[in-house]
Amino acid sequence: MKNDPRTLTAWTFYDWANSVHSLVIVSSIFPVYFSATALNEAGGPMIDFLGVSIKNSVLFSYTVSAAFLFTALLSPFCTAIADYSGRKKAFMKAFCYTGAVSCSLLYFFTKETTTFAVICFWLSLIGWSGSIVFYNSYLPDIATEDRFDRVSARGFSMGYIGSVLLMILNLLVILKRDWFGNISEGMASRLAFLTVGLWWIGFAQIPFSRLPDGTKKAPKEGNYLLNGFKELRIVWTELQERPLIKRFLVSFFVYNMGVQTVMYVATIFGSDELKMEGQSLIILILLLQLVAIPGAYGFSRLSERIGNTYALMVAVVIWIGICAAAYFVQTESQFFGLAAVVGLVMGGIQSLSRSTYSKLIPATTDTASYFSFYDVTEKTSIVIGTLAYGLIEQLTGSMRNSVLALLVFFVIGFVLLWRIPSQKIYSTRLAKAEVL
User: Fold this and answer.
1) What is the pTM for the complete model shown?
2) How many CB atoms lie within 10 A of CB 241?
3) Greatest CA span in the chain, whole angstroms?
């Protein structure tokens, strides 16, 4: 039964459970600990990883890219098999537990175990990004189209709140170590990694207890893997017959390159270009998370008034202004003001993108397979966006020039969105004979 309040609430708790990984492991405490720990015997940044000498910061970036690329290649096949076998929740659990356990194992990260820690970090990223595919695909299964925007916004808001709460707890342990037996700063950081894994697994039990399993297909000859490939081919064929979905995925790919890159490099920009202190950067990260909550709900309300595409276009226009302002920003206070605006549209554009895609796909039991294409689009855009940002910085010597490149992504994304009709409900247009 769709729109069951308990099921919808349980679904949002997976955002609450997994978002701590993005904040603590990817964005804040782990990168700082990694830079301070992944050093050679002389204390330099050039370390040995699987027989290759590499700078620690480069290794960190490559690990993120490798994890997203691996997930982008793996998820279409996993989702197709899950849809065919009716075991969507089992796959979601497998990725969730892989990621959470890998986070917990980072507790053992010391200078002597850097290789082990990098592998655990890589697996945690795969677990996180892999589970999100199945989590997102549940939205059209548990809610009707008129509820997609609000439920999606509620999920992102839960994620922001949960991650900030655990982050504050972890910072309390790090900054007030004398309250916890005068433990070392390294131990306090490693305890943070352990709490991420426990938090993730613990709160994930709420959605796992309420979310339905998938619908198993009628038995066919052959094994699950072979039939999974056939299932993926069927979904791919259906996508080719639905122009609105293709248009949205192309526009999403372009503007998401800008969105995700800004989110990943905001703290680096503040540190390198504006010489901000670590404490200010942590406050900045928390500000982004908190402001994103009203942003997600605000754009949900806007979409109810003017339709999804127009609401997304408003968000993209604001992103264009953010990039233009970032090129000229000079002071820490200016950057904090800009970060507040980033937070507002960060939650809104992510939430609306997910709900818009949910509205565009047809009524089907193959939701995981459909969302695998959304996930591949998202992950590929992250890799290309961050690569373009770094390459332009390397060639020109300035992050500000890279920011201008992101502005171009948003302009192109805006133009591509213009080709999609803005509606509150799309189901009436999604017969195979769509209006071109």
Assistant:
1) 0.84
2) 12
3) 68
> Across residues 334-357, what is the average pLDDT?
90
- Give the separation between CA 25 and CA 23, rounded to whole angstroms: 6
CA distance 105 to 99: 10
Return the closest-CA partner of residue 278 out of 265, 292, 268: 268
Copy the structure tokens of residue 86. 């009716």
Q: How far apart are CA 341 and CA 325, in angstroms?
A: 11
Please say whether the beta carbons of 323 and 410 come within 8 A: yes
The answer for residues whose C-beta is within 8 angstroms of residue 46's C-beta and 6 or more apart is 40, 53, 54, 55, 56
Distance (Å, whole) CA 66 – CA 63: 5
3-state secondary structure of 49: strand
Task: Give the model confidence (pLDDT) of 46-104 as tens digits.
Answer: 899 998 898 887 788 788 888 888 988 888 888 878 877 788 899 999 999 999 999 99
Note the Cα 433 to chain centre separation in Å: 33
Q: How many CB atoms lie within 10 A of CB 220?
A: 12
The alpha carbons of the chain give a radius of gyration, in whole angstroms, of 21
